[in-house]
C-alpha cells in the first residue's frame, strides 16, 4: 500500500550534512555521519537553550518547517480532536482531599487553567464548600509568562506551617525548590537549585533533606538544608560514587526515619537516618548485592521489607526489628509464590497492604497484622487497572484506591480494612458524555515466535465491523519492567469513535505476566520485545480486527526504540509509525558514559564498553545502526530540545539516516519541541494539543480524514 497520495505536494526534505566520525571498539569500527548533531555543550544548553550551536538549530528548525508543511492539511482536524479531548475533561476538577492532622490536602483546576492549585481545608470540612479552601500554591500564577512550567507539588511540614514546593521551567528536569509560609503564602528567601523536585521534612519543621543532581544530571548527593541558610551551607549527608545508581530520599508515615534509597534497575540498597539524631551517619540496612532488590516501609517497631532475595523472583515480604533491620534479622511474613508478583507494599497500625499481579491483573491484598487473616479487594472485568494510594496517616483503618478499565471511567474509593466497607468517593466525569455500553474491551492473546502468549488489550466501538477494514492504533512499551495498565483513557476515544481499534500490546520487557516476563525482554533477550509486538500485529490481522496497512504503531522513549526496531524488522506490517522521544541510538548512547542515564541503564541493555558480547547484542538491534533501504511507512518522530533522557540528537540523527538510506519510503516527519523536554508540554491542555497532533497523523495515514 502506497501512502504517497496522503502526503502530496511536499517540499524537498531538509538536507542534513554528513560529517563522518569513526569509532572502534572491540576491534569493530563504525562510522557515524551524523554524530556532529550532538552539541558539545549539551549540559549547559539544557539550562540555556540560546547557546545551542546555530548550525544544529538550523537543522531542527528546517525539520519543523518540513513537518508543518506535511501536516498542514490536518490543522482543522487537530483543532477538532483537541476540542473533543478537552470536552471529556472536567475543567474545574478537584481531587478528594487526603486527611493529614488538622487538615485535608487536595488539588484542583480552574476552568481554562493549565496548572493545578494546591489547597487545604479543615480535616472534616466539606470539599464542595469552596469558602473553606485555603489555596497554598496557584500553579497558573507561578507559570505566568513561562513557555514551560512543571510543578513537583507541595509538601507541608509536620506542624503544617511551611511547605516545600518545586518547579522546572525549562523541561530539563532540574527542579528549583522554594519554601512557602503557608499562612502568609509568601516564599522564604531560601532557593535551592538543581534538585530532583522534592524534599523530606525533619519532624521539627526547621530543616529538610533533598537530593541534588550533578552536572551529568544524576541524583548523586543527599543534602540536609536548614531553613534560612544558603544552599552553599547545606550539609552533605551521603554521596553515591557509583554513576550507575539512582538515588532518592523519602520519609515515613511515623516521621521516625528518613530513607535514602539507592538503586539501579536490578539492585538496591537502603540507608536510614533516625529523626531522633539528624546528624548521625546514615545506617546501612543490607549491602547492595547484584540482582537483589529490596524496599522498606515502617510498621511501628518493625520494618516490612519487600524483596527478591534468596531467589524470590516474584518477591516476598519480610519483617525485621527497627532496632536491628539488617538482613540477618529478616523473617518471612508473606512467602514467595511463583506467578504472583508483589509490586508494592505499605503498613499501617493494624494492617499490612500490598499490590500484587496475577495472570496480568492487579489485586490489592490486606492482612490483619494481629490475626494474620488476609483478604483481597477484587473486581470482575476482563481487564482493568488499580491504583493503591494508601493513606497519609499511620493510625488508620481506611485506605484509598482507584479503579478503572478501558470502558469504565476512573473511580476513587475509600476502603475500611477492618469492616471491608467500600465507599465510592468520586467517579471521573466526562462532561461531553460517555456511555460504557457503546464500547467493548477485550483481552486477547497473540502467539509469539517461541510459543509464549502475549496479552493484548483492545478497545473498540460495539458497532465497528471486525472484517479487517478497521484502522488500529497499536501501542507498546516493553522495558524496565513497566506494565502498561488497561485503564480509562479519554483521549483515545477520539480514535475509537472514528472506527479505530485501540490496542495495547503487553509485550516482554514489562512485568505484565510476572518478573520472568521482564527478564525475558532485557539484555540478550531484548529482541523478544520486538518480536512480541510484531506477533500482536499478526494476531490482530489474522483475527480480522484490522489489516497491516491499517495498523499505526505507537511508542515513546524505550517504546520509541521498539518502534525503530519493528520498523527495521517488519516495515511492511505497519501503515504508519509514531515514535515519541524515541531511544533509537542505543549503541552510541550506551557507549557514552557521560550521558545522564547511561551507567544506570547498563543492567537493562548491557555494557558495550566493557563487553564485546553485549556490544554485539545491542549492535544487532539498535534502530539507528540497522536502518537500510527498506519500504518504511510514514513516520512521525517527536523530540524535545531539553530532554535529558532521550537527547534531541537521537531522533534527529535517526530521521537523517532514514531519509539517506530509504529516500523513496516514508515520509519521515520530525517535530522538535524547542521549549520542552521528555514529557512534552507541561500544561494539562497543552499536552492534549500534542496528543491531537499525533492522532491527526494516525487518522491521515489511515485515510480517515
Automatic annotation (TrEMBL):
Residues 14-427 form the Peptidase S9A N-terminal domain. InterPro entries: AB_hydrolase_fold (IPR029058), Pept_S9_AS (IPR002471), Pept_S9A_N (IPR023302), Peptidase_S9_cat (IPR001375), Peptidase_S9A (IPR002470), Serine_Peptidase_S9A (IPR051543). It holds the Pfam family Peptidase_S9_N. One of its GO terms (molecular function) is serine-type endopeptidase activity. Coiled coil: none annotated. Keywords: Hydrolase, Protease, Serine protease. Its EC number is 3.4.21.83. The keyword Protease applies. Residues 1-24 are annotated as: Disordered. Residues 492-703 form the Peptidase S9 prolyl oligopeptidase catalytic domain. PANTHER family: PROLYL ENDOPEPTIDASE-LIKE (PTHR11757:SF19), PROTEASE FAMILY S9A OLIGOPEPTIDASE (PTHR11757). Belongs to the peptidase S9A family. This is Oligopeptidase B. The lineage of its organism: Bacteria, Pseudomonadati, Pseudomonadota, Alphaproteobacteria, Hyphomicrobiales.
Amino acid at each position: 500500500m502506497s501512502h504517497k497520495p496522503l502526503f502530496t505536494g511536499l517540499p524537498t526534505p531538509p538536507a542534513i550534512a554528513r560529517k563522518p566520525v569513526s569509532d572502534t571498539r572491540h576491534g569493530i569500527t563504525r562510522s557515524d555521519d551524523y554524530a556532529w548533531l550532538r552539541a558539545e555543550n549539551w549540559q549547559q544548553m539544557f539550562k540555556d537553550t540560546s547557546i545551542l550551536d546555530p548550525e544544529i538549530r538550523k537543522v531542527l528548525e528546517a525539520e519543523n518547517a518540513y513537518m508543518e508543511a506535511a501536516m498542514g492539511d490536518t490543522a482543522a482536524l487537530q483543532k477538532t480532536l483537541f476540542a473533543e479531548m478537552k470536552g471529556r475533561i472536567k475543567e474545574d476538577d478537584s481531587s478528594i482531599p487526603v486527611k493529614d492532622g488538622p487538615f485535608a490536602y487536595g488539588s484542583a483546576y480552574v476552568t481554562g487553567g493549565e496548572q493545578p492549585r494546591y489547597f487545604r481545608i479543615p480535616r472534616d470540612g466539606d470539599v464542595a464548600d469552596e469558602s473553606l479552601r485555603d489555596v497554598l500554591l496557584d500553579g497558573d500564577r507561578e507559570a505566568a509568562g513561562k513557555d514551560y512550567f512543571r510543578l513537583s507539588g507541595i509538601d507541608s511540614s509536620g506542624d503544617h506551617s511551611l511547605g516545600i514546593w518545586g518547579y522546572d521551567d525549562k523541561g530539563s528536569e532540574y527542579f528549583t525548590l522554594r519554601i512557602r509560609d503557608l499562612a502568609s503564602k509568601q516564599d522564604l528567601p531560601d532557593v535551592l537549585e538543581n534538585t530532583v523536585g522534592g524534599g523530606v521534612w525533619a519532624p521539627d519543621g526547621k530543616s529538610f533533606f533533598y537530593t541534588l543532581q550533578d552536572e551529568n544530571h544524576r541524583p548523586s548527593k543527599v543534602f540536609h538544608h536548614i531553613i534560612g541558610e544558603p544552599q552553599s551551607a547545606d550539609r552533605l549527608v551521603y554521596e553515591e560514587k557509583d554513576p550507575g545508581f539512582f538515588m532518592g530520599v523519602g520519609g515515613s508515615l511515623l516521621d521516625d526515619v528518613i530513607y535514602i534509597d539507592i538503586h539501579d534497575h536490578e539492585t538496591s540498597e537502603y540507608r536510614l537516618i533516625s529523626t531522633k539524631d539528624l546528624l548521625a551517619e546514615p545506617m546501612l540496612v543490607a549491602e547492595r548485592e547484584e540482582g537483589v532488590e529490596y524496599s522498606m516501609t515502617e510498621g511501628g517497631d518493625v520494618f516490612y521489607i519487600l524483596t527478591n532475595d534468596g531467589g524470590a523472583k516474584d518477591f516476598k515480604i519480610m519483617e525485621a526489628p527497627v532496632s536491628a533491620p539488617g538482613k540477618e534479622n529478616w523473617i518471612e511474613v508473606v512467602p514467595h509464590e511463583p506467578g504472583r508478583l508483589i509490586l508494592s507494599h505499605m503498613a499501617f497500625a493494624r494492617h499490612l497492604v500490598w499490590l500484587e499481579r496475577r495472570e496480568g491483573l492487579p489485586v490489592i491484598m490486606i492482612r490483619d497484622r494481629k490475626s494474620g487473616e488476609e483478604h483481597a479487594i477484587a473486581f470482575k472485568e476482563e481487564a482493568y487497572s488499580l491504583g493503591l494510594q494508601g493513606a497519609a496517616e499511620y493510625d488508620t483503618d481506611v485506605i484509598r484506591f482507584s479503579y478503572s478499565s478501558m470502558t469504565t471511567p476512573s473511580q476513587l474509593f475509600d476502603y475500611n480494612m477492618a469492616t471491608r466497607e467500600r465507599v465510592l468517593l468520586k467517579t471521573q466525569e466526562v462532561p461531553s458524555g460517555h456511555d460504557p455500553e457503546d464500547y467493548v474491551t477485550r483481552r486477547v492473546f497473540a502467539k509469539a515466535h517461541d510459543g509464549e502468549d502475549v496479552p493484548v488489550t483492545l478497545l473498540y466501538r460495539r458497532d465497528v465491523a471486525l472484517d479487517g477494514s478497521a484502522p488500529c492504533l497499536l501501542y507498546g512499551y516493553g522495558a524496565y519492567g513497566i506494565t502498561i495498565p488497561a485503564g480509562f483513557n479519554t483521549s483515545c476515544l477520539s480514535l475509537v469513535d472514528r472506527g479505530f481499534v485501540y490496542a495495547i500490546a503487553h509485550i516482554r520487557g514489562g512485568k505484565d505476566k510476572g518478573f520472568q516476563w521482564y527478564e525475558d525482554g532485557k539484555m540478550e533477550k531484548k529482541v523478544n520485545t520486538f518480536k512480541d509486538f510484531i506477533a500482536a500485529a499478526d494476531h490482530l490481522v489474522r483475527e480480522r480486527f484490522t489489516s497491516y496497512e491499517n495498523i499505526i504503531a505507537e511508542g515513546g522513549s524505550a517504546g520509541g526504540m521498539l518502534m525503530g526496531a519493528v520498523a527495521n524488522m517488519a516495515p511492511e506490517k505497519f501503515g504508519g509509525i509514531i515514535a515519541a522521544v524515541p531511544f533509537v541510538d542505543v549503541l552510541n548512547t550506551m557507549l557514552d558514559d557521560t550521558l545522564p542515564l547511561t551507567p544506570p541503564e547498563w543492567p537493562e541493555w548491557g555494557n558495550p564498553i566493557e563487553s564485546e558480547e553485549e556490544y554485539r547484542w545491542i549492535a544487532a538491534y539498535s534502530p539507528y545502526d540497522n536502518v537500510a533501504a527498506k519500504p518504511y511507512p510514514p513516520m512521525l518522530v517527536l523530540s524535545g530540545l531539553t530532554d535529558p533522557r532521550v537527547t534531541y540528537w537521537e531522533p534527529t540523527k535517526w530521521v537523517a539516516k532514514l531519509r539517506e538510506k530509504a529516500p523513496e519510503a516514508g515520509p519521515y516527519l520530525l517535530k522538535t519541541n524547542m521549549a520542552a523536554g521528555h514529557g512534552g508540554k507541561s500544561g494539562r491542555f497543552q499536552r492534549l494539543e500534542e496528543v491531537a497532533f499525533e492522532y491527526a497523523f494516525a487518522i491521515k495515514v489511515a485515510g480517515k480524514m
